[in-house]
């Protein structure tokens, strides 16, 4: 038996996004860690984890429905979703004109006043399309509210955006005036 790509992705996400210290990993300012150190930590779990190697990591990356991680030479990092203490450094980028965010209906009232806040994560996560926002919002409730963000206007007013991957954009905060409710 081998570790499934889904289980491997979950473990790598946990190690690189949330609790790298449990894996004895050191993340640099951009969230990079050593591939060899990550593999060593995963193999220490024993059992089927002992078979995890670079080929398994690369297969996980290429078969993933969403691009969550990247490898560059001997380094690997999570692209978004960090909750680690300290700030993962990102390069500013120009967002598409509109972005989307799925949330629970009861949260919409708070967002109308405070805007979108990162809450327990390092960044607010925004989707490039309505469908992805609906999928994300369904994690919070069965029938989410899809919010439309005027990203072009927000960026022009000074909101800094970062590209997480092809489907996800990140920012510290979206002021309420740039967020519209939609169903």
TrEMBL record:
Q: Which UniProt keywords apply?
A: NAD, Transferase
Q: Which EC number(s) does UniProt give?
A: 2.7.1.-
Q: Does the keyword Coiled coil apply?
A: no
Could you state one GO biological process linked to this protein? tRNA splicing, via endonucleolytic cleavage and ligation
Presence of the UniProt keyword Transferase in the record: yes
* InterPro entries, A to Z: Ptrans_KptA/Tpt1, RNA_2'-PTrans_C, RNA_2'-PTrans_KptA, RNA_2'-PTrans_N
State the family it belongs to: Belongs to the KptA/TPT1 family.
Function text: Removes the 2'-phosphate from RNA via an intermediate in which the phosphate is ADP-ribosylated by NAD followed by a presumed transesterification to release the RNA and generate ADP-ribose 1''-2''-cyclic phosphate (APPR>P). May function as an ADP-ribosylase.
Query: What's this protein's name?
Result: Probable RNA 2'-phosphotransferase
Lineage here is: Bacteria, Bacillati, Actinomycetota, Actinomycetes, Micrococcales
Q: Which gene encodes it?
A: kptA
